[in-house]
Design a protein that fits this description.
Blueprint lengths: L3 H28 L5 H28 L4 E12 L2 E10 H24 L6 H20 L3 H19 L6 H32 L4 H4 L14 H18 L8 H4 L5 H10 L4 H8 L1 H6 L1 H22 L5 H21 L3 H20 L4 H11 L11 H4 L2 H12 L4 H32 L6 H6 L14 H5 L1
Antiparallel strand pairs: 1-2
Helix pairs in contact: 1-2, 1-4, 2-3, 2-4, 3-4, 3-10, 3-15, 4-5, 5-6, 6-8, 8-11, 8-13, 10-15, 13-14, 13-18, 14-15
């Protein structure tokens, strides 16, 4: 068992090494010129390798320790009006395991990207985002307070959106990134409200004080049942958005518009499990609140059924893998709701490694299918399911049709969520225009005139081009 001070320094090194690589490369790109692909990939992969070594040492020391639960205070980030944002890391078996997993998967995806994105216009941009994502995810899983966890959470969300829109010259990735961004923004309200409630009800944002100082998963939090339920449900709302749970998980297949390495890293192995980690960290709250545990289990079970049925009706490999990931993450939430926290952690690690491999192998899926058919030497492939043999044919056809249309979930979201929000935005915009007009004494302008600005020509005011001059 290493001394606590040394463990804290190693944990800080694991988090800060990709951040230093991001800052150095970003400054070089901004002030000078783009370095070679070998330099860019070498700097980022070297920092991730250093992070992996430090995380492995921390993990080994945490496994050896009988009761590993070490808060590491690195000092305040800023202080305003009596409030101090303390940078606190937490070294225990949960955080150290996730640190090893994050750094290892990031190295694998980065090494794969060296050849996959060779001579791609956004090669340096991808590796910069990879370093920033690794920093945010390592800060998230090693955070000792909900404040630092929120900062890492937002970094992960921002890099996710930017990598979904990596091929921004096409319209589909931009629309998919917008869908991911809106879902994240709506669900992250739960994490923000949960952090505020933790400050108010628990009196501290530090996990060691709010949840107790026992080793993970620990005992029930020293909070009332109603307070623990409120905080747990708020955190679970954020976890639903990040982990694509029913009914807000329709963004996950669209996120596959990004490069294959980012799909493997974000939505196959790491980012999709951030919500699972959040609920594992909040295990003391779930122990205090049977209502929140029941909600987590029910949503997880419903997501597992939905993802399995829809995934079996998909025609492309990435959509099928996306819904398979959704169903497995739903099973993890079911395990958490039932109190099987260690089982959920083992499930998380195994699923992350498997899904990362499958995502990286996705471009070769056609060749794999041909090899499987060739191995059967022309014989018909065995049936994989028993539903068609057990259930009535009419019910099977109806279920297949619903799964193919994803149970009309996106149409319902458009009608019940998107349309009311757009109408609310239009009402707020109209009220703002009338309010500004009343304060300024100017007549109310229409939306297109406001967009054009004072004195700027409108589209209708631009004369048509001189066709004779164009022909000449």
């Amino acid at each position: 068992m290493l001394p606590d001070v040394l463990l804290g320094k190693l944990a800080a090194l694991a988090v800060l090494s990709p951040a230093v690589a991001f800052a150095a490369l970003g400054a070089y790109l901004l002030l000078l010129r783009t370095p070679s692909e070998r330099v860019v990939s070498g700097v980022v992969l070297s920092s991730l390798s250093l992070s992996f070594v430090a995380s492995a040492v921390v993990w080994g020391s945490s496994v050896v320790a009988p009761y590993a639960f070490i808060p590491v205070e690195l000092g305040p980030w800023f202080e305003v009006s009596g409030y101090s944002f303390d940078v606190v890391l937490l070294v225990d078996r949960l955080s150290s395991t996730m640190m090893v997993l994050v750094s290892l998967i990031a190295i694998l995806a980065g090494r794969f990207s060296v050849a996959y994105l060779h001579r791609e216009a956004g090669f340096a941009r991808f590796f910069l985002l990879l370093a920033l994502f690794s920093t945010g995810m390592l800060a998230l899983v090693s955070a000792g307070s909900v404040d630092l966890l929120f900062a890492g959470w937002e970094l992960v969300g921002a890099t996710s959106v930017l990598l979904v829109a990596f091929f921004h010259e096409r319209a589909a990735p931009a629309r998919a990134a917008l869908r991911v961004y809106v879902t994240y923004r709506l669900c992250d309200v739960g994490l923000l409200v949960g952090a505020v409630l933790m400050h108010e009800l628990a009196g501290s944002a530090h996990f060691s004080e709010a949840f107790g100082g026992s080793a993970w998963p620990g005992h029930a939090a020293a909070l009332g049942s109603s307070g623990a339920t409120a905080i747990a449900l708020c955190l679970f709302l954020a976890a639903m958005g990040k982990s694509a749970q029913f009914p807000v998980g329709s963004w996950l297949p669209r996120a596959m518009e990004g490069p294959t390495p980012s799909s493997a890293l974000f939505y196959g192995a790491i980012s999709i499990h951030a919500g699972v980690y959040l609920m594992l960290r909040a295990a003391p709250l779930l122990e205090r609140s049977p209502v929140a545990s029941a909600v987590v289990a029910c949503v997880g079970a419903l997501t597992a059924v939905y993802g399995t049925m829809v995934g079996r009706a998909q025609a492309d490999v990435k959509s099928a893998l996306a819904h398979a990931t959704m169903s497995q993450v739903g099973l993890m939430f079911l395990e958490i709701g039932l109190g099987c926290y260690r089982l959920a952690l083992v499930h998380l690690c195994a699923h992350a490694c498997l899904r990362c491999l499958q995502m990286l192998r996705a471009p070769s899926a056609l060749r794999d299918a041909q090899e499987i058919r060739a191995a059967h030497a022309g014989a018909p492939l065995p049936a994989l399911g028993i539903a068609a043999r057990v259930l009535p044919a009419r019910l099977v056809r109806r279920a297949y049709w619903l799964a193919l249309d994803r149970f009309h979930l996106e149409a319902l979201q458009q009608r019940l969520v998107a349309a009311p929000l757009m109408r609310l935005g239009q009402l707020v915009d109209g009220f703002e225009r009338r309010w500004v007009a009343a304060l300024s004494g100017l007549p109310e302008r229409a939306g297109d005139e406001r967009a054009a600005g004072d004195g700027a020509p409108r589209v209708s005011d631009i004369p048509p081009p001189d066709t004779k001059r164009v022909r000449s």
